[in-house]
Automatic annotation (TrEMBL), chain A:
<keyword id="KW-0472">Membrane</keyword>
<keyword id="KW-1133">Transmembrane helix</keyword>
<feature type="transmembrane region" description="Helical">
    <location>
        <begin position="97"/>
        <end position="122"/>
    </location>
</feature>
<dbReference type="Pfam" id="PF11821">
    <property type="entry name" value="ActD"/>
</dbReference>
<feature type="transmembrane region" description="Helical">
    <location>
        <begin position="54"/>
        <end position="77"/>
    </location>
</feature>
<dbReference type="InterPro" id="IPR021776">
    <property type="entry name" value="ActD"/>
</dbReference>
<protein>
    <submittedName>
        <fullName>DUF3341 domain-containing protein</fullName>
    </submittedName>
</protein>
<keyword id="KW-0812">Transmembrane</keyword>
TrEMBL record, chain B:
<feature type="transmembrane region" description="Helical">
    <location>
        <begin position="359"/>
        <end position="378"/>
    </location>
</feature>
<feature type="transmembrane region" description="Helical">
    <location>
        <begin position="334"/>
        <end position="352"/>
    </location>
</feature>
<feature type="transmembrane region" description="Helical">
    <location>
        <begin position="128"/>
        <end position="147"/>
    </location>
</feature>
<protein>
    <submittedName>
        <fullName>Quinol:cytochrome C oxidoreductase</fullName>
    </submittedName>
</protein>
<keyword id="KW-1133">Transmembrane helix</keyword>
<feature type="transmembrane region" description="Helical">
    <location>
        <begin position="85"/>
        <end position="107"/>
    </location>
</feature>
<feature type="transmembrane region" description="Helical">
    <location>
        <begin position="251"/>
        <end position="274"/>
    </location>
</feature>
<keyword id="KW-0812">Transmembrane</keyword>
<feature type="transmembrane region" description="Helical">
    <location>
        <begin position="398"/>
        <end position="416"/>
    </location>
</feature>
Length: 178, 437
């Protein structure tokens, strides 16, 4: 089994972490991952992560929901069995549309919300019996951890990370899963 | 300090003169004699009249002549109403922008928003239009009774009331003096608030402590309570009573939603204009983004109320309520449904994207559509009751809009020169200057 080395720098303050991210990026080291106990504003920008496209998927899912509701009610209420229910005009979809709008609205929201959440779970690989991935349990409480891959530059990296205010710098042998 | 550019001043005066000429022309050409209306109708309905004669041959000639006289008089009245209604719609529309801005401003004050203080002077400037604008609305309404022939509100006509049991029952509320006194109370309350809050806001610039800020906070909270009651009653008086047989409970909020969204759009416009001229250096694209979010949100809120009012009445289809929408759907199909596209569909799709909300030209383009849409909204609230199916958008309507647009620009930009555009000692000004979303 192949092993690779990573360096774990642990911080206790998010401001220090932000500055550390900036200096590590300035030195052109690739940050593999950062573990934080809470969302740190601007961390994604500092790391240079691409913006999320989750909102775009939600818009498309909403459009699907709207289409489903229109198709469903046009088929059921207008085409399949156009009954006279309390004198409401069921001759065409448009004539009876105000009565369908609450359902069209709700299904649009329903599809947009639920499918977007499911997309989020799939893309971030979250499910009920998933093994937790945090390398250090303290990162869920009050510590911040930056993980950087080592390519025979242990000493320089350690020095840089110490300078950025890391309270702990550990080198970890990581077993590759593949 | 902002200086009113001569170009803009000339432009606004040109608008006023052009508008006045058009309004004058509208009033000059709206007085048709009985015979003139007869010939107009004969020209219009030539084919119809013949078909009509066939199935009413049983009716005696006398009854027919009577019917004909009534019809012609009805149309004569509608033609005479048009310039009144046109100027009333435009006057109300611009008054409503100032009032919407004032309400939004009070909300910003009362909620102690951290993003908006850099825009406070713009909002205060726009609110100064409320006093002249509101008085003009009241004067037009009063003049339509005292000078005109009750061209906007039928319940002002004692002749009509005498034959109308329903209006008689409402006469306790719907009478001319009650209308004018209530109008002055509403307007007085709003204008007092706008005067004092601006005074405190400017006093805070040179103050040593935050007393003025706290005073502004307190009167804003009190004003919001007063406003929500009076705005509702104002919408019954100034808008809903054009159809005195009709009533709707959510009407006040519906008018409020339109008011807020057009007000916020105008804040965005004037902010962008001043920014482009180099004033308002602390306004960044995050402020614009926030304004555009409010435009987006209140557009949806407006549509929610429009639909709630329409759908509930359409669904139950009670004759005494539904005539309101029957008149609009039959005679005003394009404006009535078109405004839903302008006020909901268009802003919904345009302002959904976060990046687009930061682009000035995009916000301006969408804002123009929103303002046109809300003008059409006021138009379809007033016109069916005054001119009925004889509506069009021509010289009386367009020149009324020009007249009030010119007046609005003149008053608002004149007020903007009266105080520094950046509040100085507002406790939230630092946060607002550095606001970033």
């Amino acid at each position: 089994m192949e092993t690779s080395k990573v360096i774990h720098a642990i911080y206790t303050d998010d401001d220090v972490l932000m500055n550390a991210v900036k200096s590590v990026r300035a030195e052109k080291h690739h940050i593999e991952e950062i573990y934080t106990p809470f969302p740190v504003h601007g961390l994604d920008k500092a790391m240079g992560l691409a913006p999320t496209r989750l909102a775009i998927t939600a818009f498309l899912y909403g459009a699907v929901g709207l289409a489903v509701s229109i198709f469903m009610m046009k088929y059921i209420m207008i085409e399949d069995w156009p009954q006279n229910i309390g004198g409401k005009p069921s001759f065409s979809f448009i004539e009876n549309m105000p009565a369908f709008v609450p359902i069209m609205f709700e299904l649009t929201v329903f599809f947009a919300a639920h499918l977007m959440v499911i997309t989020f779970y799939l893309r971030s690989r979250l499910w009920p019996f998933k093994d937790a991935e945090n390398p250090d349990p303290r990162t869920t409480d009050d510590h911040f951890l930056m993980e950087i891959a080592v390519h025979n530059n242990e000493e320089a990296l350690t020095k840089l990370l110490k300078e950025t205010g890391a309270v702990e710098v550990n080198i970890i042998e990581k077993e590759d899963e593949h | 300090m902002y200086t009113f550019s001569n170009k803009l001043k000339t432009f606004s005066i040109a608008l006023i003169i052009l508008g006045l000429l058009g309004v004058g022309y509208g009033f000059m050409t709206s007085h048709k004699s009985f015979e003139e209306v007869e010939t107009i109708l004969a020209d219009e309905h030539h084919g119809e009249e013949v078909a009509h004669a066939d199935d009413t041959h049983a009716i005696t000639a006398e009854a027919k002549a009577d019917q004909h006289k009534k019809h012609v008089e009805h149309v004569q009245h509608q033609i005479a109403n048009r310039p009144w209604a046109a100027i009333y719609v435009a006057a109300f529309f611009f008054m409503m922008i100032a009032l919407g801005v004032l309400a939004f401003y009070a909300v910003q004050r009362a909620s102690q928003a951290g993003w908006s203080p850099v825009l406070f002077r713009v909002m205060e400037g726009i609110s100064t239009y409320l006093l002249p604008g509101g008085l003009i609305v009241l004067i037009i309404a009063g003049a339509s009774h005292f000078i005109g022939h009750n061209n906007i509100f039928v319940w002002m006509d004692p002749e009509v009331v005498a034959h109308d049991k329903l209006i008689q029952g409402k006469a306790g509320w719907l009478n001319v003096w009650g209308f004018l006194i209530r109008g002055i109370i509403y307007l007085g309350g709003w204008v007092l608030y706008s005067h004092f809050v601006r005074k405190f806001s400017i006093a805070q610039d040179t103050a040593e402590d935050n007393r003025n800020f706290k005073k502004a906070f307190r009167i804003s909270a009190a004003f919001l309570v007063f406003f929500l009651y009076t705005e509702s009653m104002m919408s019954w008086d100034w808008i809903m009573s054009v159809d005195p047989h009709w009533f709707s409970t959510l009407f006040g909020w519906y008018v409020l939603a339109g008011m807020l969204v057009s007000g916020i759009t105008v804040i965005a416009f004037i902010t962008l204009y001043l920014k482009s001229r180099g004033y308002l250096e602390h306004v960044n694209d995050s402020h614009l983004h926030d304004l555009a979010k409010f435009m987006f949100g209140f557009s949806i809120f407006w549509a929610y109320l429009w639909f709630s009012q329409f759908m509930l009445i359409w669904y139950a289809n009670i004759p005494e309520e539904v005539t309101y929408f029957v008149a609009r759907v039959n005679d005003y199909k394009l404006p009535f449904f078109g405004m839903v596209v302008l006020n909901l569909v268009f802003p919904f799709l345009m302002l959904m994207n976060s990046d687009y909300k930061r682009l000035p030209w995009f916000v301006v383009m969408t804002g123009v559509i929103i303002l046109v849409g809300h003008y059409v909204d006021v138009y379809t609230m007033i016109m069916p009751a005054t001119v009925g199916d004889r509506w069009s958008i021509g010289i009386p309507e367009i020149s009324s809009v020009l007249l009030f647009a010119g007046l609005f620009i003149f008053i608002v930009f004149n007020a903007l020169t009266k105080a520094p555009l950046l509040p100085k000692r507002n406790p939230f000004i630092k946060e607002s200057e550095n606001f970033h979303y």
